[in-house]
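Tutorial handout. Part one gives the primary structure; part two gives the three-dimensional structure as tokens.
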Amino acid sequence: MKFVIVVDTQRDFMAADGALSVAGAEALVPAAEHFLAALRPEDTAGILFTYDTHEPEVYANSPEAEQFPPHCVKGSAGWDNMLSPDTVDDAIPVYRLEKGVFDMWAEPDIVLCDERRAEAPPLPRDAFFERLRRDGVRDVTVIGVAADYCVKWAVEGLLARGFDVTVPESLTRGIARQIRDVAAEDFAGRLLVTA
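Part two.
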């Protein structure tokens, strides 16, 4: 069994006219939809979509604002995901995690919400991933953007928690560095990059 994390495939990053468009990201959308639609319940423990999520008054004073213009404002068109959970087999659990910083592991008290059942109680992030490991899930596939920012930190946190991580090169894009460079320079053989 594997778990899949889809990092920040939101309009502001993925669309060519997004507020912080990642070069080449829009071309990933059809391939990523095909990848998600092909996942089988017997092989997939679940899928997590991360959402970069900002409030204008908080973002203006954040370290991220020193590097990047405002983007992914919650409730805006730019915050919307360009990949639909509806493409995923109904038997595979689908979750959402909203984060206010690059690193999905950095903020305390982050929760996962069930994308299909709004009435389901939120699940604490750290307890959720501990349960995955207890249930024998060791392999995590990460796709999305940006390879040298949010994808990198997602991978780093997974490796620190004992997961084996794969990133398909064809399903991620970076801003200044692509995933093969990130793997070689930051992870020294601990991250598997596939075609």
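Part three, for discussion. The beta strands are 2-7, 44-52, 94-99, 111-114, 123-124, 139-145, 164-168, 172-173, 191-194. The chain has one domain: 2-194.
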